[in-house]
Amino acid sequence: MDAPAYPHLFAPLGLGFCTLPNRVLMGSMHTGLEDRSRDYPRLAAYFRERAEGGVGLMVTGGVSPNLVGWLKPFAAKLSWPWEIHKHRIVTSAVHAAGSRICLQILHAGRYGYHPLTVSASGLQAPINPFKPRKLSSWGVERQVSAYVNCARLAREAGYDGVEVMGSEGYLINQFLSARTNLRTDNWGGTPDKRMRFAVEIVRRIREAVGADFILIYRLSMLELVPGGTAWDEIVLQAKAIEAAGATIINTGIGWHESRVPTIATSVPRAAFAGVTAKLKPLVGVPVVATNRINMPEVAEGILARGEADMVSMARPLLADPQWVAKARAGRPERINTCIACNQACLDHAFENKTASCLVNPRACAETDLVYRPSSAPRRIAVVGAGPAGMTCASVAAERGHRVTLFDAAPVIGGQFNLARRIPGKEEFAETLRYFGDALQRHGVEQRLGVRVGADELLAGGFDEIVLATGITPRKVAFPGASHPKVVSYVDVIEGRAAIGASVAVVGAGGIGYDVAEFLVQPPPSPTLDAMRWMADWGVRADFDGPGGLRRPEPEPSSRKVWLLQRSAGKPGARLGKTTGWIHRAALKAKGVVTLGGVEYLGVDDAGLRIRVAGVDTLLPVDSVVVCAGQEPLRALLAPLQAAGKSPHLIGGADVAAELDAKRAIAQGSRLAAAF
Ligand code: FAD
Ligand code: NAP
Ligand code: SF4
Q: 665 C-alpha to center of ligand 1: Å?
């Protein structure tokens, strides 16, 4: 076999009793399929694809060791022998594909979304309406036994090991940290006693499962909460966990309640690898770097610089199950990169929906959305090379159809060409790179710079016509809407409109927020400035001190921006479940004023006149940027129908309201799978 393109990534890792083929750990990711027995065949198919794609070691989503440790009512649990059977479907599928899998044992403690929660103390988490019951000493012993029992059952179910979830603010973390552990018995009061819960769990699991079973411990290395554990104590914990029998130490960054983003797209790539690097020389077991590692060169760099022994990736393997195989073959351009949007994975988990992936709708739908070779190849025209059209064309061609893709613009990507210009959304360019390669590889004829008309489509003799023509920005109708101060977001992002020092943004949807960010952030740089980002969010560069936090020092904006909406209530309420708070906090830090319940009275030379709660106000702005939503663009539909054709509508051309790339890509892919 040829030498791998990324030698450090593909160096085997010996664990004493077994050898991992490469340095990729597929990190734990809650998919929702773990929670229902009937979904285990789907879960097995999901893991099997990733195993076939060459991942060396995988970790399941969190499974609680008992009922009080549930994440939510009826969430995944393994505490009785009769619960083993369904897990065997998963472990056999993974082993048949030549990989290994560990079960993550996650006791939610006070993060459990149900009334039975328990914790080290009776302190309620700020993100949970349920108050935990403080465990008695006997209760603590019972939790330790539950972890051990769960690990023993995991071994019986065929797992190659377990990962003990000791970070992210879950139960073990609640014992470790002085901010949540107020006990004065043998389980709290001093650092040694606070860490006793974690150490006893690891020690007793090792005793119960024997030496030849992988025991990963996810260590909370940077808590990012006020009063969080400082570095010296974290090192003590790592050493004690190693001595207690852990095989591998994985990195945990942040608690769920912390107010610093840790995995969103605006977090610079590998921003936290330095934390793992700091621990590595202090322990003897392999350590794993995590968070925002999504491309082979990033992973290889971490390993080559000796910052970690393995890299953990969860979402990047949702996005592309063949990630490892493509990296192994030296074809990074073929990787469907995770853009860290959270829209179909983490947002779904928090909305009680099955996880999937915005750029790969087959994730967790492996048995249902299948791209089989077509038995009757057809000639297909796809009009519009935005996310919906690119996906449809690429999948249809992959299945053997002859596809012509038209776009009026000289480049593919549609609105993603705007999205990628927003500071903190640079990753969106990776999706354009991926589709650029895929369209070419699958032989799609690309007719770019062509605003195709109905006549040409009819003359082309296509068997199927797909209209993926997207949207047209909605115009506003208030007095002065045609004043030179009033411009569209498209002109602003594309740099065609000169924007003054004070700006009103009309419309506070996803695009309004992005435009406000565009106006107040310094221009995007090709490589995100990690130090600047840390200063903005108040993370210490040396990752030391309580929780690794410092006073945030956001760079002031040179522009004054107002972000407005007509609906009453807090703007930004409809932004992503797990990322909306980041956008709201980022704009607040830059001094952007957000207003709901606004009536637009008109624009004139003096600025924008508005009425809020019956009070008229003049916003003395130089520019008014309209981000008032969109209407479907489907001018080709009527003439094609009049000519007897039945074109397919996907993406914004179908429905513009509530449109996002998740829906556009899923629609494109499902239509192409059905041709
Ligand atoms: P479009 O992307 O609009 O593509 C339509 C294409 O059709 C265009 O390229 C157009 O040139 C072409 N076309 C139209 N008529 C013709 C014709 N007659 N002949 C040839 N070509 C034609 N979504 C998310 O999910 N997450 C985000 O974080 C996000 N951020 C965004 C940020 C910004 C600044 C913007 C503007 C959008 C963002 N979106 C985001 C929205 C997302 O980009 C859209 O939902 C998605 O692009 C819609 O895809 P589409 O394929 O339906 O249409
Ligand atoms: P949007 O979310 O529908 O927001 C449109 C905004 O314009 C609303 O604030 C609306 O609020 C206002 N508006 C609507 N009609 C108006 C009118 N006639 N006059 C004045 N204001 C009007 O649309 P968008 O912001 O353009 O985003 C489009 C899609 O892209 C969204 O559906 C979103 O999912 C997606 N997107 C997602 C992200 C993300 O981070 N996930 C980012 C960007 C875009 P009022 O009616 O209250 O004024
Ligand atoms: Fe990554 Fe977004 Fe897919 Fe989640 S939905 S795996 S964040 S690309």
A: 11
What residues contact residue 609 under an 8 Å CB cut-off, 6+ apart? 600, 601, 602, 603, 616, 617, 618, 619
Kind plus residue range of the DSSP H or E element containing 580: helix 580-589
Q: What pLDDT is attached to residue 4?
A: 74
Q: Give the chain's radius of gyration (CA, Å).
A: 26
What are the backbone angles phi and psi of residue 522, rounded to the nearest 5°? Answer: -65, 160
Determine contact, residues 624/506, Cβ cutoff 8 Å.
yes
- Structural domain boundaries enclosing 128: 27-259+330-350
User: What's the CA gap between 163 and 561, in Å, rounded?
Assistant: 47
**Residue 643, CA atoms < 13 Å, CB-side half-sphere:** 15
pLDDT higher than threshold 60 for residue 526: no
- Scored b (16 or more CB within 10 A) or e, 372-411 reads eeeeebeebbbbbbbbbbbbbbbbbbbbbbebbbbbeeee
Sort strands 310-313 and 57-63 into parallel, antiparallel or unpaired: unpaired
Ligand 3 neighbourhood includes 392 CB (under 6 angstroms): no
pTM, two decimal places: 0.96
pLDDT at 530: 84
Which residue is closest in CA terms to ligand 2's atom 6?
Answer: 507
What are the angstrom distances between the C-alpha of 578 and each of 46, 254, 260, 629?
A: 23, 14, 12, 22
Whether 175 and 220 have beta carbons less than 8 Å apart is answered as: no
CATH classification at residue 568 = 3.50.50.60
**CB of 428 sitting under 6 A from ligand 1:** no
Say whether both 125 and 224 belong to one domain. Answer: yes
Which of these, 582, 533, 609, lies nearest to 274 by C-alpha position?
533
pLDDT of 484: 96
Whole-angstrom CA distances from 206 to 175, 199, 246, 471 are 20, 11, 8, 58
Burial code (b: 16+ CB inside 10 Å, e: under 16) for 449-484 equals: ebebebeebbeeebebbbbbbbbebeebebebeeee
Q: Which residues lie below 8 Å from residue 551, measured CB to CB, with a gap of 6+?
A: 538
Residues comprising the chain, all counted: 675
434 is catalytic: no
Residue 529 in any domain: the answer is no
For residue 406 and ligand 1, the question of a CB distance below 6 A is answered with yes
Same domain (yes/no): 185, 56: yes
Percent of the chain with pLDDT over 90: 96
The tens digit of pLDDT for each residue in 458-493 reads: 999 999 999 999 999 999 999 999 999 999 999 999
From 6, 40, 111, 170, active-site residue: 170
Any atom of ligand 1 within 6 Å of the Cβ of 148: no
Tell me, yes or no, whether 490 and 426 share the same domain: no
How many CB atoms lie under 10 A from the CB of residue 85? 11
Q: Which atom of ligand 1 is nearest to the CA of 471?
A: 3
User: What's the one-letter identity of residue 354?
Assistant: T
Residues 562 and 457 in one domain: no
Q: Does ligand 3 come within 6 angstroms of the Cβ of 205?
A: no
CATH code for position 108 = 3.20.20.70
State which ligand 1 atom lies nearest to the alpha carbon of 265.
28
Paired tokens of 296: 């082979």
